[in-house]
Amino acid sequence: MSAHSLEVRGLVKDFRLRNGLKLSTLRAVNDVSFTLVPGRTLALVGESGSGKSTIARIIAKLEIPTSGEVLLDGETTRFRGDHSAYRRQVQMVFQDPFASLNPFHSIAHHIARPLHIHHPELKPAEVRDRTVALLERVSLGATYLQRRPHELSGGQRQRVAIARALAPGARFIIADEPVSMLDVSIRVGVLNLLAELQRDEGLGVLYITHDLATARHFSDEIMVMYRGDIVERGPADDVILNPQHDYTQRLREAAADPDRLGQLRDEVRAELAKER
């Protein structure tokens, strides 16, 4: 793949499980490949346990794959050693805004720390100016500098997490279920912010979600993941309006009826139990 891309190639992740004295292998990710490019959002959609977050953790260098590789601008990246240069370009926004911020530190600290790490040449006044600018970029501002995370709402905490991800100068953002733990009333605001940043900053975004509706609205392309495999992919409208795979069709039906989401999970578990 050419420069200016984040490519996942042939990714496989196996987990060893122990049940008493018996060992077994669970393949969480099975030969997954895709490419993120600046200015585009790719959605990775599937139910809990499909392997989505495992892919996110591998890309973020928080997990080591069984096989496969991650290439940044056409160059293979390492999974051991110093990742600072990689993380300057690739950042992650986690699902839980209540757990991803340290409650003992101010909001200023959370934004300034990656600036100190990735841009040590900055003077203290420059760090403060950039911190304020980043908070303003996510519709907060200087009044939040000395607050602690517990003083902010869930949506505001997630905005801080987004500002923190932007601080190193990242070109690629991995957003792992970024609004699933927020109140429904504030989810759209956070997603609109991500979409605006993607357009204005030319970011490449991997949007991981179980929600087909937001995936269609905020993404250029959609990949549907089921039990570790990508079972369908294509332009967002095509995947949602004309799903080809049975699992995608079932996800769409569940999205139309929120009560079906739990039933769908039960159906998938029942199918897995039959195959064991």
What's the gist of this structure?
With 276 residues, this protein is α/β, with parallel strands linked by helices. Helix content is 40%, strand content 25%. The strands form two sheets. A six-stranded mixed sheet has the order 6-7-8-3-9-10, sandwiched between helices.
CATH names the topology as: Rossmann fold
Helix content: 40-55%
What would the principal axes of the Cα set say about the shape?
A: globular
Q: How many β-strands, per DSSP?
A: 10
Regions with little confidence, pLDDT below 50 for 5+ residues: 257-276
Task: Give the mean pLDDT.
Answer: 89
Tell me the β content.
25-35%
Distance between the termini: 39 Å
**Computed structural class:** alpha/beta
Radius of gyration computed on alpha carbons:
19 Å
Strand and helix layout:
Blueprint: E1 6-19, E2 22-36, E3 41-45, H1 52-59, E4 67-72, E5 75-76, H2 84-89, E6 90-93, H3 107-118, H4 124-137, H5 154-166, E7 172-176, H6 184-201, E8 204-209, H7 212-218, E9 221-226, E10 229-235, H8 236-241, H9 246-256, H10 260-275
Parallel strand pairs: 3-8, 3-9, 6-7, 7-8
Antiparallel strand pairs: 1-2, 1-4, 4-5, 9-10
Helix pairs in contact: 3-4, 3-5, 5-6, 9-10
Task: Give a description of the structure.
The protein is an alpha/beta fold and 276 residues long. It is globular and about 55 Å long. The protein has one domain (6-275): P-loop containing nucleotide triphosphate hydrolases (Rossmann fold, 3-Layer(aba) Sandwich), CATH 3.40.50.300. The chain has a six-stranded mixed sheet with strand order 6-7-8-3-9-10, sandwiched between helices. A four-stranded antiparallel sheet has the order 2-1-4-5. Helix content is 40%, strand content 25%. The chain contains ten helices and ten strands. It starts with 5 loop residues before the first strand and ends with a helix. The longest helix has 18 residues, at 184-201. The model is unreliable at 257-276 (pLDDT under 50).
